[in-house]
């Protein structure tokens, strides 16, 4: 188990956005964020993922074989391009960046479920998402869609990312003006806290050990018996 200085972690998490923002010139950011992305593929990804205009837990988090098949048939080629860094032009503005994050962070998990390949691009996606958040691009897309900028941080096996993700979710829930969605977002925030608690306890996600070829500790074996989903509850 890794050892963390929580005070240090929190200070780092609170400072990460300011640090990244300092590397951008305000005028450059504004010019970049005003660029439109005339790519039908971007709209195709976002229209599919946010088709209902509401929280879609069935598709997003419990899709199973049906959604996996849809993603493979409709977006398999785009996922391959994203993983080969052939869609970097999408990161020139918020909407395209969000679509790229969904390809890498969500659709890769659909296509490579249960395989180490589902995690091979997590580090790259984390960098894309963090850079976008630092520029405030998460708040330049519709509110419901903003949480997908935060999921790469929640998926990262690093406590600093976890603390930052939870802070972002707290702010995200507070900004919600849709009373019908508040409960769903509060549940998402709870799920984020469970991820943080798991990393705080183990320094990694025990549920990933098998597919990543990692040995379980005795504590992790007992934990997974009691928490088959793999998260502190």
Could you describe the 3D structure shown?
With 233 residues, the protein is mainly α. It has helices at residues 6-21, 26-33, 40-49, 57-60, 64-83, 94-111, 122-134, 151-155, 159-175, 179-202, 209-212, 218-226. Helices cover 64% and strands 0% of the residues. The chain has one domain (6-226): Serine Threonine Protein Phosphatase 5, Tetratricopeptide repeat, CATH 1.25.40.
What is the structure about, briefly put?
With 233 residues, the protein is an all-alpha fold.
Can you lay out the helices and strands and say which pair or pack?
Layout: H1 6-21, H2 26-33, H3 40-49, H4 57-60, H5 64-83, H6 94-111, H7 122-134, H8 151-155, H9 159-175, H10 179-202, H11 209-212, H12 218-226
Protein name: DUF924 domain-containing protein
Organism: Amylocarpus encephaloides
Pfam families: DUF924
List keywords for this structure.
0% strand, DUF924 domain-containing protein, mainly alpha, Serine Threonine Protein Phosphatase 5, Tetratricopeptide repeat, 64% helix, TPR-like_helical_dom_sf
